[in-house]
Amino acid sequence: MTAQAQVRVDGDALRSNLARVRSVAPGTRVMAVVKANAYGHGITQVTRALKDADGFAVARMSEAIAVRQAGIRTPILLLEGLMLPRELDLAARERIDLVVHRDDQIDMLRAYRGAGRFRVWLKIDTGMNRLGFRLESAAQAHRALCSIDCVDQPVTLMTHFACADNADSTHTERQQREFEAATAGWAGLRSLANSAAVLAHPDSHRDWVRPGLMLYGVSPVAGLSADSYGLTPAMTLWSRVIAVKSIQAGETVGYGGTWQAPRDSVIGIVAAGYGDGYPWRLPSGTPVLIRGRAAPTVGRVSMDMLAVELGDRPDVAVGDRAVLWGPGLGVDRLAARLETLPYELLCGISQRVRIDITHPTADTALAG
């Protein structure tokens, strides 16, 4: 028995969520977003589980290399593009598609003298105001890319939505209109939709969709659950109870004595804390699942441990599994308590946490 926080990733859930993308965006190609260690799920394990995706998108060159080393032969898209000219040789050798979003990246391609050829995605900024050519300079950038010998033609055209997760916002429709106007008559495939747009804006699907969060079984749309979209959480963060003890009414638990027992209580200590990525800021009362029932946390989360009140739970014992989030306890519920996004929690899993990918039938129920 290992008494430390671990992550179990359900490979069948990942594949089910990919199938869900295909069902709601039929006829499109799927560029699965696996940046930030596949949103904390393990980039090698996830890309192998999602090998039927049409391609994979990453933020950095090191992530692209990790995907290739996992045995993936489908396209890999470098979302932030090149940082240095010397990366072109690496991109050519590893057959990495390049997002171009600024002028010096065009200059790098124009100056390239190697034997490689590059598939390029031209990013147009329609209102995200992060990366991409502004509308007034997009045509010039497009003409430049069309004239470079090492660039395969036609280039793919893309933009990124800022507010697709907000069903009440008109921002997405405006961005889409401006993209269409800016690229009217241009050859090339189009890519607009992130996870939220895949689900909430079907008119934006076009040729390539770029799902991220929904692949991991988390709803990308504010106020709507994963269940409502037919998504299955892929990650379970869990550990074990390492102590069970009785305390008297009036005693406090944890650093700072921030929680005081209102009555005689039984406390369970779980081997997980902010050193594993379970946030220190989560308040007392946050649920943890032990034997399939919720037990509220009490006191401050420590680096390696947290405490839960067991109440009248004589069945709980040292060694029992404690689920911190996963099926039955969605990470979005914890994110809501922190007034943050599920992304932050998923990507916050620390390096000391072991990540295993399994099939549901290959493991016993985590609630047991």
Please give a quick description of this structure.
With 368 residues, the chain is an alpha/beta fold. It is built from eleven helices and 19 strands.
User: How much helix, percentage-wise, in residues?
Assistant: 25-40%
Helix and strand pattern: EHEHHEHEHEHEEHEHEHEEEEEEEEEHHE
Please report the number of helical segments: 11
Taken as a percent bin, the fraction of beta residues is 15-25%
Based on Cα principal axes, name the global outline.
elongated
**Intertermini distance:** 14 Å
Low-confidence spans: 361-368
Q: Give me the oligomer status.
A: single chain
Q: How is the biggest beta sheet arranged?
A: 9 strands, parallel
What's the average pLDDT? Answer: 94
Beta strands, count: 19
Task: Outline the structure in words.
- The protein is 26% helix and 23% strand.
- 45% of the residues are buried.
- It is built from eleven helices and 19 strands.
- Strands 2, 3, 4, 5, 6, 7, 8, 9 and 10 form a nine-stranded parallel β-sheet that branches.
- The radius of gyration is 23 Å and the shape is elongated.
- Strand 15 and strand 16 form a beta hairpin.
- It has 368 residues and is of the alpha/beta class.
